[in-house]
Amino acid sequence: MTRAVHFSDSQAALFDRDEAPETALPGQERLPSYIRDHRARLRERFMVGGADALPDYEMLELVLFRAIPRRDIKPLARALLERFGDFNGVLSAPPPRLAEVAGVGDAVVTELKIVEAAAHRLARSKVLRRPVVSSWDALLQYCQTAMAHADIEQFRILFLDRKNVLIADEAQARGTVDHVPVYPREVIKRALELNASAIILVHNHPSGDPTPSAADIDMTQQIQMAADTMGITLHDHLVIGKSRELSFRAEGLL
């Protein structure tokens, strides 16, 4: 059952200040009523049903309202989705590639990057300082949020204490579209500095296919040997693809 949402005067003023006629600069046309009405309806639908009530292009419109307050942004939202595939792809796109889309300026890039950073911080807060076993799904979601849409390979290490509580998450290296340099000695050195008892390796495949390469397997074996020597447990190596991840442990590679 759908219920109406009524905003207080102060809430309405906050939501609508970018469309209010008094905010128009001299010589600037007032935002057409059909656009104002569309924005109001979209916001109300979001407040009633949340993000699940809106398709990607309408969620993107909501984000862009603040960056472009006085123009119809539906065409831009659709152009961004056509270029980058989905909502997550738009948020994760590098600023230079975003700027290639007609209509995207500094304000749009900044707004998108703020939302992306907020999503990463929220996802990270759900796993940091918590036992990995009880928050495994949240951990996978965090890895997907942080890495699935990156256009170059990134290598991260999750450091755990004796109770398998995540004590640190650090990016160790950034590479190219299909390779990232990783040095087992540096991985173990950092684990010892943090007094970590166990680690989880994570890296992404920009191609979208999380199938590990021969180099991935070889590198993992080298880190496992180094970790065993120092009494550190290698719990898993996760390879993050566009829509799914692969676990070395689940695949019998560890």
TrEMBL record:
GO terms for molecular function: metal ion binding; metallopeptidase activity. Keywords: Hydrolase, Metal-binding, Metalloprotease, Protease, Zinc. It comes from the Bacteria. It holds the Pfam family RadC. One of its GO terms (biological process) is proteolysis. Residues 132-254 form the MPN domain. Belongs to the UPF0758 family. This is DNA repair protein RadC. The lineage of its organism: Bacteria, Pseudomonadati, Pseudomonadota, Alphaproteobacteria, Rhodobacterales. The gene is radC.
